[in-house]
Structure formats: structure tokens, C-alpha cells
Amino acid sequence: MRTHVGSKRVNGIKQIALLLIAVLSMNGSGFSLQTDPPSPASQLQTGEAKQAANARAEVKKRGVGEQSRVRVNLRDGTEVKGYISKVEENAFEVTDKKSGKVVVISYTEVEKVKGPGLSKAANIVIGVGVAVGVVVAVLIALTPST
Hints:
Elements: H1 2-27, H2 40-62, E1 69-74, E2 79-87, E3 91-95, E4 102-106, E5 110-114, H3 120-142
Antiparallel strand pairs: 1-2, 1-5, 2-3, 3-4
């Protein structure tokens, strides 16, 4: 008889377990933490924060003074040229050397900070082109004329 009572107990536990599994599967979350996916607005703010941090680091790396010439592309599509004349926590100033005009730029407005000249890739392409030209000229000069 003990066996019979034990089997009822096992069947009861199985039924409770099955019921618990059914409820949890209908819930869809089980015991996992349920978090809402980040909204597009918060993702945009995170991206803007990263962009602002990158701009701040780039400006601080370049330093202040007339030797720190930059071209700053802003989010609104405009470009500011000059040298970095002042660096603060939330903004920096770019002064146009010719006109003396000072533009205060918030780091959140910055799309990209570039140096005054050509990009590194452009300089490499120019260097390779010059090297190829020299090699071709030397080969032409060394080729015997018929």
C-alpha cells in the first residue's frame, strides 16, 4: 500500500511540474529577466555620446594654438576651418586665422575633426603614384633604343 501512496505522490508532482511548465511557457519569459529593447532614441543618444567623446578626445589630442589647425565637419553639414584656440569640457573654440572670427563648437555638434591637409590615405596614394612614375621613367631610360 505504501507503494500506491508513493505513486500518487509522484503523479501529483508530475502534474504540478507540467502545470508549472505550461504556465511559464505561456508567459514567454520564464525565469529570465525581461527587459525592453533599447528605443531608437536612446540608441541615437548613445551614438551621439560616443561621437561627442571621440570629438573631445581628438580636440584634446591636437592641443591649443595656431599650430593646431583643423577642419571640423558639423552635423548640420557645415565645415569650420581654423585653429583650436580654446578647449573646455563641453565645447571648444576654432579661430579663423585670416578673419579672426571665433566659432564656439559644442562636442555634440561635431561629426568629424580632421587635420588641415590631405588624409593619410590620399598621401599614400600620391606617394605610390610618384614611386610608380619614377620606376617607369627609370625603365624607359634603361631600355635600349632601336
